[in-house]
Every structure is written in C-alpha cells, then in structure tokens.
Amino acid sequence: MGSGPAPLAIAIALLSNLRVTALDSSREMHALAMQNVQARGLPLRVIPVIADVHAIPVGDGAFDLVVSLGSYHFWQDLPTAFTEILRVMKPGGTAYIGGGAEHHRLRQKSLPSGRSGGSWTIRITRHAPGSGSSCPGRSRHR
C-alpha cells in the first residue's frame, strides 16, 4: 500500500518467491513503478496498480501479506483504510504498517495534530473465524 516507485515491492520479489502487487494512488508513481519493475526484469512478479487504500480493487482474502512503509499519513480515513486492509488479507495473513523514520520531515508537515511522529510498526494478523483471537499485535520502535 502506498508503494511509490515500488522499491520495497521489488525487494520483496527479489528476496522471495512471492508475486507482489504494488498499489499506489498516484499515476506518476505508477509510471515510475512500471519503469523500475521492467528495469529489474520482474513484470510477471511485481504488478503495479493504481488504486486507493480506501477502496482496494481486489476480492476479499486476496493477500497473504500487506506491507506499507511511510504512507499512512496520506490516508484520509484511517478506519476505512484499515478495514480495507483487513478485508483483503487472507485468514492467517499479516499486515505490517510502518511509520517510516526516513519520512520524518514529511510526516511532521502532514500529520494531523495529536499523531505521534516517531518510527513505529503495527503488525496485524487476521485470524480465521472462530479462532478466538481478534487482537492485532502492535509494536513500537524508536
């Protein structure tokens, strides 16, 4: 989510056997992602998609893993975004949503008052129905 020119998506593909969807709402970032994916020879493994985190254009339970680093501050409606992320995760899937310390200045300019600017990661696991667990794991790193 919020893949930009897809460096993280490309790295995940190169370090795994995963097929990666690189979602970003910007047409400019999509064009750069397409160029970067082609340059790395990964057009069948990394699929750039223009879409918004508030309305992800895939079916329920489509992804085993969702990763976003430093894009949450662009999300207009956090509850809707997290609801969508949970919807597209398979039962047993995991999401890692990170604040991204490298985006400190941008984050300070763009955060609504009251949001912390520290580096952090939230880990969310979607449990299978009836498993008895519904609490996402959270961790904060400084």
Q: Radius of gyration, rounded?
A: 15 Å
CATH class of the largest domain: Alpha Beta
| Largest sheet composition | 4 strands, mixed
Widest β-sheet, arrangement of strands? 3-4-5-6
CATH superfamily of the largest domain: Vaccinia Virus protein VP39
> How many E-type strands?
6
CATH topology of the largest domain: Rossmann fold
| Integer tally of domains | 2
* Known CATH architecture of the largest domain: 3-Layer(aba) Sandwich
Structural class category: alpha/beta
Order of helices and strands: HEHEEHEHEE
Beta-strand residue percentage:
25-35%
Q: Helix coverage percent of residues?
A: 25-40%
| Termini separation | 22 Å
Q: Count every helix, treating DSSP H or I runs of 4 or more residues as helices.
A: 4
Could you report the average pLDDT, rounded to the nearest whole number? 81
Q: Overview of this structure, please?
A:
This protein is α/β, with parallel strands linked by helices and 142 residues long. The chain folds into 2 domains: 1-51, no CATH class; 57-142, Rossmann fold (3-Layer(aba) Sandwich). The chain has helices spanning 7-14, 27-39, 78-88, 104-110, and strands at 20-24, 46-50, 63-69, 89-98, 120-125, 138-140. Strands 3-4-5-6 form a 4-stranded mixed beta sheet. A two-stranded parallel ribbon has the order 1-2. Strand 3, helix 3 (78-88) and strand 4 form a beta-alpha-beta unit. The protein is globular, with a radius of gyration of 15 Å. The chain starts with 6 loop residues before the first helix and ends with a strand.
